[in-house]
Amino acid sequence: MFAKTAFGIALLSVIAPCDAFAPSSLIPGRLSSHSAALTHGARSSAFPTGPSLRTTPTLASPQMATKGIDFPALDGKETRVGIVYTRWNAEVVDKLRDGSKKGLTDICGVQADNIVEFEVPGAWELPVAARYMALTQKVDAVIAIGVLVKGETDHYDMIKDAACSALMTLQLETGIPVLNGILGCHDMSQAEARATGDNNHGVWWGQTAVEMALLRATQMGKVSADGEVKKKVMF
């Protein structure tokens, strides 16, 4: 009995000094002075009186992406470009076509008589018409323009996927740059928005056609890196 009592006294002598250094709120059955004060409605000066320290972080405002593409200065006076366009959704296609010609002539300096145009019924016919142009080797690039608007059936997806895939295959097989100017939209307002004003995608297609045509000419040795036309053609 005496041994147990002595052990208890020794244990308390160890705990007591620790109690002096431990936060009172961690000791069972005891409230800290701050906790007690808050419990009785008093605010301690040790606690911040302003807004809570756990504030919700302020998210940065999203920046609107600038639409469009930046182009270097392009000299297309010696470039010949073909445009294939559809009669389907002509009210929008015509705006895209005009935009393409603006990009070619007004911006890149392509001569008007160096633009060859084919009209076809719809987007399904664009790849084969573009192929006719590419195989003649009389054009340096081709722009295929059409507008497809999603309807109630799967026809939209069938035409869009097949036509776009065929245009990609065409340029890889022939080496002639073929611009995919087929807009696949969910409604006509989306198509109009991409064919109007500064957002007219056709303008960018025209510039891209010239840039890719010049790239091809440079790689084939027809034009030097500084744009000078070479007299001797390698291919």
TrEMBL record:
Pfam families reported for this sequence:
DMRL_synthase (PF00885)
Family annotation (InterPro entries): LS, LS/RS, LS/RS_sf
Q: Which GO terms describe its biological process?
A: riboflavin biosynthetic process
Q: Which stretches are transmembrane? A: none
> Could you say which residues form the signal peptide?
1-20
Q: Which UniProt keywords apply?
A: Riboflavin biosynthesis, Signal, Transferase
Presence of keyword Transferase: yes
What does the record give as the reaction this protein catalyses? Answer: (2S)-2-hydroxy-3-oxobutyl phosphate + 5-amino-6-(D-ribitylamino)uracil = 6,7-dimethyl-8-(1-D-ribityl)lumazine + phosphate + 2 H2O + H(+)
Q: Which family does it belong to?
A: Belongs to the DMRL synthase family.
Official protein name in the record: 6,7-dimethyl-8-ribityllumazine synthase
- Which organism does this sequence originate in? Hemiselmis andersenii (Cryptophyte alga)
